[in-house]
Amino acid sequence: MGDDTPTDSRAKEVKKLVRAHIRVLAHWHDEEVKSLSTKVVEDPMYKPLSPSDLEAEFYAERREALGDIELEPVSWAKPPVPHEASQFVDPRPVEWRATVAKGD
Fold first, then answer.
1. In degrees to the nearest 10, what's the CA dihedral of 68, 42, 4, 81?
2. Alpha-carbon distance 57 to 70, whole Å?
3. Measured between alpha carbons, how far is residue 3 from residues 16, 65, 87, 97 in Å?
4. Residue 86, pLDDT score
5. In this structure, what DSSP letter does residue 86 have?
6. Above 90 in pLDDT, residue 62?
7. What are phi and psi of 74, to 5 degrees?
8. 90-98, long-range: CB within 8 Å, 24+ apart, which pairs?
9. Organism's domain of life (predicted)?
10. Could you tell me which residues are beta bridge partners of residue 77?
11. Domain map (residue ranges) of the chain
């Protein structure tokens, strides 16, 4: 029990990526952010095939920031099991919140 499905794992990774993306954007100066392509700023899932030097620096910082992001469960649910077995099944986390493990 408690094993993540591939969909759960992917959703958690996306949540961490989005949080890291927002964190790096918040730390960069406005002029640097304005120099990035709009697609890079607005879409955390986008990565250009040949990024500019500034975009490459942004993605490198985002990769570093991923190490500081942790997921905390915010809600739990019991997996569907027959009623007579429900007492033997522990709830598992179903929703997660991304938090920064190290202070900004």
1. 130
2. 22
3. 18, 26, 19, 18
4. 73
5. G
6. yes
7. -120, -15
8. 90/1, 90/2, 92/1, 92/2, 96/11, 96/12, 96/15, 96/71, 96/72, 97/71, 97/72, 97/73, 98/15, 98/16, 98/18, 98/19, 98/69, 98/70, 98/71
9. Archaea
10. 92
11. 7-68
Q: Which tokens in the block code for residue 76?
A: 């739990």
* The pLDDT value given to residue 1: 43
CA R_g for the chain? 18
Structure tokens at 86: 């429900």
pLDDT at 104: 54
Tens digit of each residue's pLDDT (9 = 90 or more) over 76-87: 787 787 777 777
Q: How many residues does the chain have?
A: 104
Tokens linked to 83: 């009623």
Q: Which helix (H) or strand (E) holds 92?
A: strand 92-100
Distance CA 55, CA 87 (A): 52
Three-class secondary structure of residue 78 per DSSP: coil
DSSP assigned state of 81: -
Spatial separation of the C-alpha atoms in residues 17 and 7, rounded to whole Å: 15
